[in-house]
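Batch manifest, entry 17 of 40.
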Amino acid sequence: MSYIVAAKTVLPEIKYTQNQLSDFFCIIWPDKKTDIAKFSKSVLVDNRATCITLDEVSKLTTFAGRNKLWQEKSVELASNSILKTFENTGLTPQDIDLFITTSVTGFSIPSLDTVLMNKLEFNKNTKRMPL
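Output type: structure tokens
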């Protein structure tokens, strides 16, 4: 029988208000100011966390560069999240039967779940479900 033993939230350390992000995106896409303002109001989010500063974001000029950075940061953040989830449970990655991952930000080959399973030494029989 499957069950959830623990859940933790792990966010990147850099934080911006929704207004700061909207202002930043209006500089990048000045022709989209109306859409950005509409989106910012409708999401009902006050703050967001990021892995890099807005200055660093503005220096990412290619898809390949953005995705490479995503691959590095996603493994770091996901590893921290997994390890925090195991705290105080008495469990290790060896105890996991099914490992489900999802991301809407970037992609990786090999997939993020594969990289994490090797890095954190999951059981070789753990089933993967990347969504």
